[in-house]
Design brief:
This protein is α/β, with parallel strands linked by helices and 223 residues long. Helices cover 44% and strands 16% of the residues. The chain contains ten helices and eight strands. An eight-stranded parallel beta sheet has the order 7-6-5-4-3-2-1-8. The radius of gyration is 17 Å and the shape is globular. The chain binds pyridoxal-5'-phosphate (PLP). The site of pyridoxal-5'-phosphate has 13 residues, from strand 8 and helix 10.
Length: 223
């Protein structure tokens, strides 16, 4: 299967779910997760006209998108950071990414506010919610979400979305429905939820961004 065909297949499924649930497919953005994929595969997606990509490690993303010249060569590329962000990487992250989906603590809010001002750059920020309250996972626990959102607002950082990664051994639909509820309560418009295995469940629940890696590019190279 070619990468273009894979993307087409996923878009077909998005459209089908949207028709079934009377949703507008234009509100569902397909983020092609290019982490740990060979450049040739990413180029194939770019040549096919795809422009929305996700990466989880700042340094890897710099290699793949900046050092390689890909981001300059293909106009209109938008990059989402979908992995945990350390404060010492905020400068690089703000410089490369268009959307940071993993804001999860006040210290990170502070660092982002400072760096966004410094670089005078427009960036969108989502908050990652640890809906399963897993100790090893980043994201703010649901009980701390309200205070984090309030803090971000006080500091002048607009939060335009929520993101979650459900625990592997639980039905993801419950977590997607929960995240949607949290977004409604806090009047947040974007919902980043759903990956290769479960985006068909997240779309009916109102996902605005789905993050699909292996179903587009195939298995990731190790390391
Ligand atoms: C790797 C990753 C994905 C993509 O996962 P696939 O199963 O390859 O679709 C989505 N979201 C996050 C946060 C990831 O780290």
């Amino acid at each position: 299967m070619s990468i273009a065909k894979n993307i087409e297949g996923i878009e077909y499924k998005i459209n089908k779910a949207c028709r079934q649930w009377k949703l507008n497919p234009e509100h569902v953005n397909l983020i092609a997760v290019s982490k740990k994929q060979p450049i040739e595969r990413i180029k194939e997606a770019l040549e096919d006209g795809h422009r929305l990509f996700g990466e989880n490690i700042v340094q890897d993303a710099i290699q793949t998108w900046e050092k390689s010249g890909l981001k300059d060569r293909y106009k209109g590329v938008r990059l989402h950071l979908i992995g945990a962000l350390q404060t010492n990487k905020v400068k690089d992250a703000v410089s490369l990414f268009d959307v940071i989906e993993t804001v999860d603590r006040p210290k990170l809010v502070d660092a982002l506010v400072k760096e966004i001002k410094q670089q005078n750059k427009q960036i969108e920020c989502f908050v990652q919610v640890n809906t399963g309250e897993e100790p090893q996972k980043s994201g703010v626990v649901p009980s701390q979400l309200a205070s984090l959102l309030e803090y971000a607002e006080d500091q002048g950082l607009k939060i335009s979305g929520l993101m979650c990664i459900p625990p592997v051994n639980e039905p993801s639909g419950l977590h997607f429905a929960f995240l949607k509820k949290l977004a409604q309560i806090h009047k947040i418009e974007n919902l980043s939820m759903g990956m290769s295995d479960d985006f068909e469940k997240s779309v009916p629940l109102g996902a605005t961004h789905i993050r699909v890696g292996t179903s587009i590019f195939g298995e990731r190279t190790s390391t």
